[in-house]
Amino acid sequence: MLAVAGLALLAACDGGGEKSMAKATPPAACAEGAQLSQEQAIQCILWIAGAAPDNQPDPSTATARRMTKCEALDLMGWEGVPRARPRTPPWDSPVWIVEVRGDFSGSIGYGLTPDPSPPRTGRFVQILGDGGAGAILFDERAQEGPELSREKIVERALLEIDVPGNEPDPSSASLARMTYREALDTLRREGAPQDFSERPHQDDPVWLVEVSGVFIDPCAGNPRLGKYLLVQALDGFIESSGFVPDGTPAP
Asked: Which residues of 33-65 are buried (b: 16+ CB within 10 A; e: fewer)?
């Protein structure tokens, strides 16, 4: 299962370029953020991801996709990264979201890896343009606890979505035990903005929790009827989550 084990190098790409650890000097082009070409965006993440001595990004796996800032932040939220919502408009400012696989060492991680960790295989994801954000997503959980009861899993899910403006209906909460692969297939059918292909540990058991209610639309910022889907490890760790509107305006 995937785990968010670090948020190293959270700043936007105010520097980057072709990987050259000796000079470590980013080209001026990276300061242009969203104005970069796709190739330039990829070169930026290779420099950022490879800046730490222990990091070894694989250039052959690097990808860059163009989207709005809100779409990029929402995508990272589906990946399990806590959403850092745009504080002010424009919500639709263009950005690049770039990703590269390799071996990385996390240094900050919500209590999971408070100190630099030995390099492990995973993905480095970065938003370029308009503020930017990034995360290291390791292929294996950094920590696993005892399996929680069904009641505790639902309680953990409700706590995750208990933010100002959200009005979940606890009585609507349902959960199903399945493999990570099956849960990701469900998210994909529901409209999760991700490509879950070629991920490891897809046969691990997880809980898929569904809660209906009124939730703040992550891009429009207004309340919408819909449901939240949360993929949780057996110990309650949030592997992935996201809001799916039902198309009906909130009352």
From this structure: bbebeeebbbbbbbbbbbbbeebebebeebebb
